[in-house]
Amino acid sequence: MKVSLFVSCLVDQLFPQVGLSTVRVLEKLGVEVSFDERQTCCGQPAFNTGYVEEAKRVARHFVAAYSDSVPIVVPSGSCCTMIKVFLPQLFPKGSTERDSADRIAQQTFELSEFLVSVLGIRSTGASFCGTVTYHDSCHLLRELGISQAPRDLIRGVSDIDFRELG
User: End-to-end distance of the chain based on CA atoms, in angstroms?
Assistant: First the structure.
């Protein structure tokens, strides 16, 4: 299977190791990863701060860059939410731009969702000896309804002591 990786502007600028690690995990699982160098941002910073016209401009660039893409994998619940939920809403229903944004939204997956729901992976072969917990990402949980996939992957790490917050 081939995917296109959208690393997000924050990963690109501040945490590039997240993008590199995402590629390593996907390739280890037999996924061919492509990276479109035209990618910039999903538009979330502008959208969240009320700059709708600027968000539309960024969204148009995003849609143009990914119009012919295979599934898009995003290692960020917030950016994935912007692409799947809010980016299409920037354009009028029935417009060509909305149709394109809706198509892209349907082929976009947050990383844990892609691994668990699309590839059927519950273990990546990782191990960690220690106790961990997991705090749900607000966008991932509230907007996308994803809470089980990250937990499934954590539980799939050998030697881990996973404890729910509480």
Answer: 38
Tens digit of each residue's pLDDT (9 = 90 or more) over 107-124: 999 999 999 999 999 999
Neighbouring CB atoms inside 10 A of 147's CB total: 14
Sheet holding 32-34, edge to edge: 32-34, 2-5, 72-74, 108-110
Residue 87 in tokens? 């980016």
Is residue 147 a contact partner of residue 136, using CB atoms and an 8 Å limit? yes
Cα separation, 119 vs 115, in Å, equals 5
User: Which residue's structure tokens are 């997956």?
Assistant: 109
Say how far apart CA 91 and CA 108 lie, in whole Å: 18
pLDDT digits over 18-54, tens only? 999 999 999 999 999 999 888 889 999 999 999 999 9
The amino acid occupying position 51 is Y
Place of tokens 């969204």: 59
Distance (Å, whole) CA 68 – CA 96: 15
